[in-house]
Structures are given as C-alpha cells and as structure tokens.
Amino acid sequence: MTRILASLAVVTATLAATAPATVARAQAPVLALDAASRMIKVMPGQSIQDALRAANMPGQHNAIPHPPAPHAHDDLRYVDPTIANGSLPASTLVVGKAGSFPTVKFDYTAGNAGLETVYLQFVSSNGKNSLTLQFSPSGHVVKGTADFTQPIGIAYYSKPDTYTLNYALAIDYIGQYTEYSQAQLAQIFQTTALHVVNTGPVDATPPVVSAAKIDTPTVSLSDPLPAFQVSLTATDDVSGASLAYVEVRPPGFPYSFVTPTISPLPVLSGTVPASTILAGLPAGKYTITGYALCDVANNCAEDQNADDLKALFGTTTFKVTE
C-alpha cells in the first residue's frame, strides 16, 4: 500500500474549493481567527507573502522543505536516492470537475536506507504559484515504481495556466538526498507540464482596499487570546476577499508578526477583519507595519509603506497592556 501526502499550493488549504460558495456574495459578519496558527515572523525587507511562503502558511503555495543534513555512515551500500523514467499519464486538471487530478509515475532507487519521500514542485507560468506533490512508500522500500494520482485542490476561480515541473527532491531515511533541476527533470520525464483548464469564471485581480480602521486601539495581554484587530474595507468583484493579515511590530523588536485571519464567507464588498495574536509578546507601544488581503483565487493585495499605512489607518501605533 502506498501512502500519498497531498500538498495544496495554489490557495489556502481551508478555502481552496472546486465549486463556488452559494453564499459568496454575503458580507462576512464575524471574525474567524485561525487561533491554531502560530505567529509568523516577517523580517526586515521581507514581504508578508514571502514570509508566509517560507513558513508554509495559508495564502501561499507550500514550499518544499530544505534538504536535511545527512547522517554520517561508513557503509558504501547506502547511496543517495534517485528517480528515473518519469511520466505524467494524466496531466490536465479541470477546475470544478470531481476527480480531475494529476497522475505521476516514476522509478526510484534508495539503497539500503530506503526511500522516505519524493517531492515534485510544479510552478505556474508567472512563477508566483506552485503545486507540490509528495510520494512516500509504506514501509522500508529500497527500489520500486511510484504510480499514483495526487488529490490536490485548485481554486474554482483559477485562471487557465500551465505549471512546469521545475524542482524535485528525493530523501531517504538517513537524510541522504538528491535534488533535481528543471533541466534535469526534462531529461527524466516525458513531459513536465501540468495543464489547468477552467471554463468557468476566472479571477486574476487582487482585492482593492479603500479604507481601514483599528478595532482594538488597546490590547490586554491578560485576555484569554490577546489579539490586535483591524477592519479592512475592500471590494473583490469575482471570488471575494477571504484571508487577511495585519503585520505588527512589538517595541524593541527588529521584526514583525502576522497571523492568518479567515473570513467565514468571501466578501465581495464590505469589511474584512484582520487580526494578529500577541500572546507571549511584551506590553508597550506597537507599530502596524503592513497588511495583506487575499481573495479565494489567491490574488493578494499587500502594502508595507509607512506613509500609505498612516493614511489608511489614521495612525500606525496601538497600545498593549499587561
């Protein structure tokens, strides 16, 4: 039996859909804070989207993990894992069609250590989105053929596009690995293209934010879940705004934090809440350093310009008490 791990890449795992919500035109009435998510650091000079991408968080495609540090060994029978003879028997994903998933096939060899996981990354034509497929055999397998259909999700409003296999990583159980570039994969696979087909509505435009206000000018760290909240007034004519972030910097910190906030319903026109958890952070004067707002189709508007933020919110500071 083969264990297949799905990794969603184009949109938020909780909001990627193969059909539009029947109530997508209703305004989000309440905040739905993803309290289980950890606070994500946004480093100086780093965009919110890049920080989310690095952390594998909602609103961005999942990144392939960095190759591990190999364990030392003296047995020459332990060789780096490899893949060969690849193909994509089913390479078309039809948006909104049940069971329209890619099928991948390749041979693999991992030596005595046994294959742990092979990651395959397909990148969109503009390089901004990707699909990551994962294959892991069950048990200790040193050689075999992967032949699987990957259940992944494509947002209903995704535009037609071609995703190209541009990177692969094969890892064994003692941390040895082999990386493959796009050029190398073109020699291994008969075709490296996944085609996304969408005959329905397409959304390729990010939300437009026209106003904002601070909902919690003072936050108490003694609250059960202390969080700073703002409301963004926005329009998004097709799929609706669904995922918001407000980036805040604690006093004395060289970096900022964000937490994903998911609206219960996509918002075509109205206010969208954005909140950042402050648990474990110090009291003092905080600074708003940015925001991001994404729609169901994963088009995102983002601004980290201090002048823009002050004009939008009226002030870029708020108070946090014990």
Explain this structure.
- The protein is globular, with a radius of gyration of 22 Å.
- It is mostly beta strands and 322 residues long.
- It folds into two domains: 64-197, Immunoglobulin-like; 208-321, Immunoglobulin-like.
- The longest helix has 8 residues, at 48-55.
- It is built from three helices and 21 strands.
- Mean pLDDT is 83; it is low at 1-37 and 58-62.
- The strands form five sheets. Strands 1, 4, 6, 7, 9, 10 and 11 form a seven-stranded mixed sheet that branches.
Q: Which features does this protein show?
A:
mainly beta, Immunoglobulin-like, seven-stranded mixed beta sheet, six-stranded mixed beta sheet, 7% helix, disordered N terminus
Question: What is the gist of this entry?
Answer:
The protein is mainly beta and 322 residues long. It contains three helices and 21 strands.
Topology:
Layout: E1 2-7, E2 40-42, H1 48-55, E3 82-90, E4 92-94, E5 103-109, E6 115-123, E7 130-137, E8 143-149, E9 161-172, E10 177-181, H2 182-188, E11 193-197, E12 208-214, E13 218-220, E14 227-235, E15 241-249, E16 256-258, E17 261-267, E18 269-277, E19 284-295, E20 300-303, H3 306-313, E21 317-321
Parallel strand pairs: 4-11, 13-21
Antiparallel strand pairs: 1-7, 2-16, 3-5, 5-8, 6-7, 6-9, 9-10, 9-11, 12-14, 14-18, 15-17, 15-19, 19-20, 19-21
